[in-house]
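=== RUN LOG ===
request id: a7f3
mode: sequence -> structure
chains: 1
length: 217
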Amino acid sequence: MIKNKPPSTDQNYILRLIAEGEHQQLDFKFEISDSRKIARTLAAFSNTNGGRLLVGVKDNGAIAGVRSEEEYYMVEAAASMYCKPPILFKAKNWIVETRTVFEVYVQKSEVPVFAQDEKGKWLAYIRVADQNILANRVLLEVWKRKNKPHGTFIEYSKSENELLAYLSENGQITISKFTRISRLTQIQAENILINLISLDIVEMKLTEKGAFYKLKK
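=== RESULT ===
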């Protein structure tokens, strides 16, 4: 991480960010009381497109200000102790309306980042809109494939052809729907989707309601 810098008084920068509201690359936190929870946000930013965390800002955009330098050390613990691999971040204090807003910037990672939960389990998250969504098995396996030196080779079977025909006609499908129409187990259906996603034929869209799969344009 990059050590916290002296406060800056260019408050217009922070006010412009706050005006955007929370989204895929921006999150507000009134305060930090749990490094593990912050680790999820940092990991989600890293696994998606990077992002900024503004501490001392309420969900509605109201500026409350940070109370002490403890916020920095909580983020440092989240990034170094509760993220695997550890996350590099940039940190800066901003003076806005006489209050201090703590900005944390995280870049997109080249490798998957996992965050440790309260039970010690390492989980991966991605950022969807303003939410941190748990990565499913399909996404985790696709990430693994991308880090392997050899490519993905598949032989099209009836199941693959039925899936592609369904997507061509209906646009998208869920795992549960795919298992019903193909009469495959969930693991078998997921493995087919993993292959097709790895070959850039199908893409996955994770939402708060679950995962959907469609043909890649």
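=== NOTES ===
The domain at 2-134 is CATH 3.30.950.30 (Methyltransferase, Cobalt-precorrin-4 Transmethylase; Domain 2).
The first strand starts at residue 2 and ends at 8.
=== END ===
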